[in-house]
Amino acid sequence: MADRRALIIGVTGTTGYTTAHHLLDAGWEVHGLSRRPAPGLDGVIPIHVDVLDREATAETLHGGGYTHIFFNIWIRQATEDENRRVNSAIVANVLDALRGEPVEHVALVTGLKHYLGPFEAYAKAPADTPFREDQGRLEFPNFYYDQEDVLFEAAARDDFTWSVHRAHTVIGWGPTNSMNMGATLAAYAAICRATGKPFVFPGSPIQYEGVVDVTDAAVLAEQLLWSATDRRSADQALNIVNGDVFRWKRMWGVVADALEVEAAPYPGHPTPLEESMAGTEPVWDELVAKHGLVPNDLATVATWWHTDADLGRPIEAFADMTKSRALGFQGFRRTDDTFRETFAGLKAARIVP
């Protein structure tokens, strides 16, 4: 694979980190772009630049000889208008910097908000499940759509193939864990153990009782590698989830057992983590000191608002994988194992106790 030089935008996040390791294991040369260094990326050639700085991005990336580009990043903003401006600029700045380079394929990771709507209008559109890639765009503005349009225009201009990967809630871990439900639930359980708080499923009755799925970061990385090397995936939008479905009323017990905490009875209504975990930063700091954890503050490990959004939805949400299967991608994960392995990895890395 010496002729395949990958550039991962957002290599320190959960999906970028996992993708980097899959590409390295497959023999690729991997360059990882981030704003700051991070541990655990041995073998990745680091690039540090702010991709919102158009000129700095062009100066840094020009002449890099990258053949495959993987966008594993988005930067949350206060409004969807700002999300659209900032996150489409990330894609545009990188692809503009690579004009005239030997780029063969560009992969963009987005998510099921393509079908559910942006956070400002989240789950307000009818949910036609299972979500299929041929469902049209919603009426709401959505930065995913803007990113796609930038990608499509650049692909037509510069003659490379593309793929869009619509993941659901990504479960995994990496040097930075922003918006990672796995790390958030592990921190929640640790605080519950330390304080005696009940480990209650914090979401809505529909999420507790309804059908849902998630995306293991490893199965997403497998699909990204496949899409970069299999022509059948060229110029395709593809859902990517584990391939099984579950109900939280059973999975909550699996999660609790893996985190060595007792699952409390579900109260029948949401108990958002942003409220129940407010003010627990000193408890977390004590756990870090007591267990010799990596000295992250609580906000670095746990993203309460994001897990509340996922678990508090008033509708079912799960995706269809038929298109990928028909094209030849057969990756699969058992979600019970996804949670267990993620928690074990976080503990081994001393992210959580």
Task: Briefly summarize what is shown.
The chain has 353 residues and is an alpha/beta fold. 42% of the residues lie in helices and 12% in strands.
Description of the molecule:
- The chain folds into two domains: 5-170 and 215-240, Rossmann fold (3-Layer(aba) Sandwich), CATH 3.40.50; 173-213 and 245-316 and 334-348, no CATH class.
- It is 42% helix and 12% strand.
- The chain has 15 helices and nine strands.
- It is globular and about 60 Å long.
- The mean pLDDT is 94.
Q: What is the third-level CATH name, the topology of the largest domain?
A: Rossmann fold
Query: Whole-number average pLDDT?
Result: 94
Question: N-to-C terminal Cα separation, in Å?
Answer: 39 Å
Low-confidence stretches: none
Number of domains: 2
CATH class of the largest domain: Alpha Beta
Largest sheet: 7 strands, parallel
Number of strands: 9
CATH superfamily of the largest domain: NAD(P)-binding Rossmann-like Domain
By secondary-structure content and strand pairing, the structural class works out as alpha/beta
Task: Strand order, main sheet: write it out.
Answer: 3-2-1-4-5-6-9
Q: Helical region count?
A: 15
Q: H/E order of the elements? A: EHEEHEHEHHEEHHEHEHHHHHHH
Give the DSSP E fraction (strand runs of 2 or more residues).
5-15%
